[in-house]
Every structure is written in C-alpha cells, then in structure tokens.
Write the structure tokens for this entry.
Amino acid sequence: MRAFALLLLLALPTAGFGAPQAAPKAAQLRLKPGAEGTLCLDCHTNFGEVLKKPSVHTPVRSARCAGCHNPHASDHQKLLAAAGNAVCAACHPGVPSEKAKSLHKPVTEGCTNCHDPHAADFSPNLVKAPQELCTSCHTALGDALAAARFKHRPIEKGGCVTCHDPHGSPAPALLKKDVPGLCLGCHKSGSEIFAKKHMGYPVEKARCTSCHDPHASSNASLLSDNVHPPVARKSCGQCHVPPTSAKPLALKGDGIGLCKMCHADKIAAMMEKNRLHAAVVAGDGCLSCHSPHASRQPKLVKGNMVAVCGTCHADTIRRQVNTPTKHPPVQKGQCTACHDPHAGDAPLMFANQDEIGLCGKCHDWQRHSSHPIGDKHRDPRNANLNVVCLSCHRAHGTEYKSMNPFPEPTALCTKCHEKYRR
Amino acid sequence: MSATFIRTAVAVLLAGAAGVARGQAMTHAGTIYADSAGKALKSPEGVACGADGAIVIADTGNGRILRVTLSGEKVASVSEIKLPEIVHPTRVVAVKDGTLLVLDRKKRRVARIAEGKFGGWVDVPGEPSGSVLVGALARDGAGSVYLLDIAKAVVRVIDPSGSSARTITLPPDEREALLVDLTVDEGGKLFAVDAVGRKVWVAESGAAVLKPFSKSLKDVMSFPSYVATNRGRLFVVDGNGAGLVLLGQDGAFLGRRLSLGWNEGLLRYPAQICFDETGQVFVADRQNNRVQAFSLQ
C-alpha cells in the first residue's frame, strides 16, 4: 500500500490522457482523494501483485481505476464504463486507423485478446511474450519458424511487429508497407551484388515474396521451400525476356502456352481428358493456382488449397466452414485427395470414377456401415442410380451432423425406406 | 427401363429460399430416364427443345445424342445419334431446320449435326481450325453463332454465313469474372453467366463489350453454371445449389426454384435447360442421370 501511495504522489497527469466519456469528473462529484483508484485497493487487495509487473497500464499506474470502470454500476461486465473496445478507444483513438485496409481479427474481437488492461510481463501490456503471442494463433507459422534453418533477421531481432502492424494497416497482410516497398527499406536494390543475384532483372519492381519467404526457410537466401527449377538454376531467361529488353520482366509467352514449353506432356495429358478445369486455360492459366517462382506449398501451389480453390469455389469452402461435421481433406485443404485439379473424365473431376472406391481410399466402408451399397443395389428414389456414399452424405458438408443432407437420420433413411416414415 | 414420359398429377412445390414470382411456379411434369431400348441416361449435361417439339438430349456419359419425340404424354420415339467425332457432348442447340449444334467438351469444339450425320465443325473465321477452346455456345434468331472462348474469356460471334466473326469482351478492368455459359434472347441480347462473380453480364445486340446485368447474386446462388431465357425472364442454373434462379428484365432477383434431392422433382448438379413452346422447361439433371420436365405456371 505504501508503494502504491508513493506511485500516486509521483504520478503526473499526462497530456492526451482523459477519462472515457462515460466516467464522471472527480471535482463534480466531490470525491475524496484517492477515490478514483487508491480506495479500490482496500477491497481489490490482489492488485498489489499486479502492479509489480514490468509493464503497467498508465491509468492503473496513475491509480485511475475510474478511467475505465464505473465505480457504481454499469451495463457492461466487470463494471466497464463502455462496451468492449470503446473503453480503450476513449484514450487510444485511431487504433486501428479508419483507413486500414487489413484489420487484425483479434482487434475486432477485443483488445484484451492480446493486451492485459492492468499490467503484464511484456510491454506493451502483452499477455504473452510477443512472438509467442503471435504464434499462439499463427501456429503453422510458428512451426515453420521453429523448423527452418534460416530466419529473416527482422523476426529474430524485432519480432513480427518489425514488418507488421498488429492492429491494422493500409497494406495487405497487416504489413506496414506493401511489398516491395517494405523490403527495399532494408534491402538496397542498387548494388552490384543485388543485381548479380537477380540476374540483372529489375526485381525491385516485382513482388519479392514471389520467390522469397519473408519469415523463414530452409533454403539459402530465404527462397521459399519449393522452388521452380528454372528459378533454382537461375535460368530466368527460360520464361522471361532478356533483362535488357524494353519490358524486362515480360514473359516469353502467354498463359498455358508458356508452361507448355517444359510441361508439354502433362498438358497434353490434361487435354486428353473429357473435362478440363477452367482454371487451366482461363485467365492466367497455370498461374491461377501455381506460383511460377517459389512457394511454401508443394507443387508450387500458391497457398493452402482452401484459399487457392476458394478463390473460385467460395461456396464450397463456406459450406465446409459451417458444417458441424468436418471432412478432414476439405478442412485441411487437400482438395486433390478427391478431385483432379487439372482435368478428369468423371463428373466433378473426381480422381476416381468409382465413387465408392474414391471414398474407400480413406474410409473402410465395410466397417463404417453395414448398409448395402454398390452396383447391385439400386437407389429406390431413382432407378438410374446405385446406392453409393454420396447417396446419403454430401462430401463438403451440410448444416447437419455426419454430412447428412437432412436434419435427422430418420429423415434421410425414410426417403428410401418409406414404410418407416412416421 | 420404360421410356414413357410420365406426367405426375401431384404438384410438387419446390421453391427455394425466396418467394414465388407471379406466374412462375414450377411443377414437376415428367422424367426421361432411358432410351427406348432401356439404356439409362448417364450424366446428361445438355438438353435442347426443337421447334418440332422434339427434345434433344446430350447424353454425356454415354457419348451420344438422343432425340426424343413426344406424343401427348408419351414418348413417341427415341433415336440415338452416336458419332465418332463427338465423344463427350455437353451442350446442344436445336436449329429450326433440324440441324443441331453440339459442344463436345473433350474436343472443346462445336459440331454441326444434320440428319443424324456429322456436318463439320463450327470454327471461328480467321483462326486456325480448332484453335479456339469453346466452353459454351448460343445461337440467335438470325443464325449467328456465339462461342465462348474460355482461354481468352471473350465471346466470338460468327455471322450466319460463317465467313466473318466479331468479338465481345468483358470490360478491360474486369479480372475476376469466369464466364461459363451464354444465351441470346429473342431481341438479340447476349447474356453471359459468371460463375465466380455469381452474376450475369449482358451485351445489347451489336455491342462489343459486356456490362453487368445483375449485381452479385452470391446471397441467392452457390455456383451458377448455365443460363437460358424465356418470355423476358432469365433462368440461371445454380449447379452446386441445385436450383434455378429467376431474374427479371432489369436483372432484379425474382425468386428461386427447385432444390437438391434424388426423388423426382428434385435436382443434383443440374446442367443445361430449355423451354418448349408449351411453356415446359426441361432440365438436364446430370448427377441424377435423367432429364426432368417442369411446367411453368
């Protein structure tokens, strides 16, 4: 208590700090000295320990509990003077900026997801050590950082906030500035070494992250884990016009025609199928799904398939997000477990035209269910169909359990077994 | 398997989420399951309504075309057209003179079929034969053929004589649209459905650039795949959502019809649709291996 009283004497009003609008002014209410905070410690005795932490929130340090809490009554939990982030915004306006184009999800859910409103072991009032805090949600990234041979120096020295604004930013992915501007802040492109490393191409006009992983990699120069062989061989000229050309980053060909120079057999095999995935030929062709330079994902897929396939198939991805029973290959972004991403002979480009065989790759259906399925069993609802897995389940999910298209199992069963219908 | 075209007496109301537009309720009228020999349809994706009342089906999984003539409520005849040039038919357009235009999805080309025989490919004048990858087709009343070039995301319009072509494009700043089907109305207006943007684009007769006809319909459809017009209304087939979305002449959403299922009257991954003179709509019910007819009331 004595320590706290000392702090009170030393605390000076700080410019820019004002009470939230909901809190009453001390003079108007004729409060006794210390009524805005010190008196609170008479009951809230545990706060003594809290105040010993290295990072203490200024209103707490100033003993101004009434800065955030209403001491009498409130419509909000914990007697907060306003709802959620509004309490914080009273002193921290513009966090995040209204002009932010990318917003950090925890901010929208509540400042206390990351910050302790009273005191914490880590500045600025972070509930965990900075990198541990970030990777507690961004677990895949945390795992990648732990496993990688090489880490980007800003991460090692300053942590994630070296490049990212943890609240919101005008650039994508919470970057303080978009690529390449952000990168060029440290990496000067005018040097001879830089030019030599990039085969003389003016890469400062392109996106560095097309080749480099900005966090960590097991490849030297932080090239992403999977590198397109021409890039690994430094044969940029295989796809790009010479660096001395008028448009040095231009490609030698368009769309699938360019990729055909090396992948002719694969493309020919695709063209032989009955159905060609639109992404293969439309728009950017192969680059609709693949990175031409390097990627964290195998086979140079641009990103996790949930994101890549979801660019066009947003409805399917949404169904998986909302379904109570998750189908792991869909949830994990393993669309190619069931579908050929390029071409196929079967409807929906199933990797196996036999639907039971397709599901049977993962599900031992004979143990899963004794319900008769297969070529010998006609679907009573439609004589042109056999009973197969998809007769009862929707593989991407439904709003009901077990990927059932109906609310209750009996509703499904009695579609065929009508005599049991109530 | 009987090829009898059965008209059900029970009206099955299969409305989706939105209300029913006046005069546009859909009642299941019948189903075609097989040819006269009993060979079942397999993943049919195309259906066209001929001027003579015949229903032409692209029986995709069986690699053939079926021509079904009806006599009242019954099938009068079913003739099969199986040609070595056409391996995977997915869309059909029936011309008044009896000619068929058939899109082969494997070859990505449109074939002409006259009197049951292969009558050559429809190529774009000025382009090497077979070089344009066709994803959809339509035909207007004057005889111009519209081909969706899926590689370049443009529509190639071939004049009735087949000697010249023009191009209709998306606006230059449009990067996200994925056009998947076309239709032309009686006034020569071209409609193109965008599966990713979930909206419809339109080009007036003679126009060179498509413009938005509707705002995004992502709240009312999952993944549109086909489109057709009938009496001033646009019918967009929601493939993944197993239904039809109706749009008015101004692009306004008028309602949603039909839904997912295996029983008659329900759909699974519906494909091409067509309208006959009596006001019936035929739907290639692909994953249900059948073609269904619905009466528009």
